[in-house]
Predict the 3D structure of the following.
Amino acid sequence: MTAFVRLTADEFFGDHPCTDPALYGSDEQLLAYMLQDVRSLIRRHRSGEIDLGAHEVLTWSVHGLARRQVVCDPSALAEQRDVCIVGFFGERRSDLDTQQHIGRLDAALLGEFSAVPGVLSYTSV
């Protein structure tokens, strides 16, 4: 078992080329869009413009990208505190069987959030 290696945002672990920060520019931009979406939803919720129910699935499209947001815990998400973000990035698959399989896994994942304390929100683009 390999020991954990803690890296700062600009460090690269030579034995693992996937840790090269140069690879993640587009991922960082996408995370910024996702953060904007969450902040916007929380602002609109605080102002009374929208009501956010726990585990409600919200969908919309921006610039041709389908967006989906599941706010698991609106109250906790609205608190002003530091939180951790976990991101998984990949490429859409063109194979229909693979798309359907991923869709089933994604639906199962969404169903699990109600049983996992501490998850504040889930976003997909």
In short: The chain has three helices and three strands. Residues 17-124 form one domain. The first strand starts at residue 56 and ends at 62. The CA atoms of residues 55 and 111 lie 9 Å apart.
